[in-house]
Amino acid sequence: MTTKTAIPLELLDQLLSNYTKPEDLTGEDGLFKQLKKALIERALGAELSEHLGYEKGDPAGRGSGNSRNGTSSKTLLTEDGEVEISVPRDRAGTFEPQFVAKGQTRFDGFDDKILSLYARGMTVREIQGHLSELYGVDVSPDLISRVTDAILDEVREWQSRPLDPVYPVIFFDALRVKIRDEGLVKNKAVYVALAFNTDGEKEVLGLWIEQTEGAKFWLKVMNELKLRGVNDILIAVVDGLKGFPEAITTVFPQTLVQTCIVHLIRNSLAFVTWKDRKTIMPSIRAVYQAENADMALIRLEEFEAEWGKRYPAIGQAWRRAWDHVIPFFAFAPAIRKMIYTTNCVEALNRSLRKIIKTRGSFPTDEAAFKLLYLAIKNAGVHWRRPIEWTAAMGQFAIQFGDRFASSAR
């Protein structure tokens, strides 16, 4: 089978007639760079001909009132490095190039290259070095800042975009980030809302930065989700976030609030000595793996009978959270695994931590927001539909009735 190409093979053979080594194609004066320059200049010449209404050298242009007036040189930053091009001019000064606009110094793809590097956690200095080493281009810190700052409008649009009316499951978790504020570096929390939509696809609904959490803060977040179109949340999975249950039920009174069991286990083990952890885990596991909520309470009582004197704080912690521990028992075990833990949002946070770990601190909230947004968008965070989703839909339909049925249409 032959492969069709828009470029005649004879022309390709002609272009490659002097090819002897890879540098003849990709080097500083290689064919790729020469072709880019030639094609850009050819396209600009065609645009000028269209603007004037006649081709270069055509007698029809005589007396037309406008004509070609030489060229001006311009240096373009491209993915292949700097390219010097000649931009044609007209005598009347009315020609407005479209392919390379007036004032444009960077070719399509170059800004994306900067944003991609920035999204992977590179500092401005590291991006400078990378572009210089790979493309032989000296880029100023101001240019990099302008390119990344230009994304802020996109960030604001993303943070205020309309959302679905109903989300079956939303996970809320926090990521700690150092941000400079009023001359001091403060340890702020970036709160993440990650949802399963009705198709079982994961979607980050938003990011919120706050130094301290509480009912007032969470009420603001819930009201924002409401204003963006969310009418109902079936299940909200949280990591014991202070003030969250009160805030969410104020705005979404029917929402089932589920404590993240993994976080509760982790907090419980903080009270346990290293030598006891392996021994105590089966007793803790028996609580959340019980057949139902009644059996879970019996297992908790058995745990307290065995370990309560040595570690009384564990049983107390589970009992304080009990109303938000047991909701997932209404579902089959396979579905419980999906909703009783914020593991999926923690996986997202791990990806984000890898990206921000090279930063000592961020100068502003906006700088942190910008990088985290780009990281979510550009840094290879992949969303996979949970394998239990089809079964989950059937159970959600029974558990939530019309609330889920209306969202799944």
Estimate the strand proportion: 15-25%
Question: What count of structural domains?
Answer: 2
Q: What is the overall shape?
A: elongated
Judged by helices, strands and strand pairing, the structural class is alpha/beta
**Mean model confidence by pLDDT:** 80
Task: Tell how many strands the DSSP assignment holds.
Answer: 7
Low-pLDDT parts are: none
Order of helices and strands: HHHEEHHHHEEEHEHEHHHHHHHHHH
Major sheet description:
5 strands, mixed
What percent of residues adopt helix (DSSP H or I)? 40-55%
Strand order of the largest sheet: 5-4-3-6-7
Number of helices: 19
- Could you tell me the radius of gyration in angstroms? 30 Å
How many angstroms separate the termini? 45 Å
What does this protein look like?
This protein is α/β, with parallel strands linked by helices. The protein is built from 19 helices and seven strands. Helix 4 (110-119) crosses helix 17 (365-378), helix 8 (215-227) packs parallel to helix 9 and helix 12 (293-307) packs antiparallel against helix 13 (312-320).
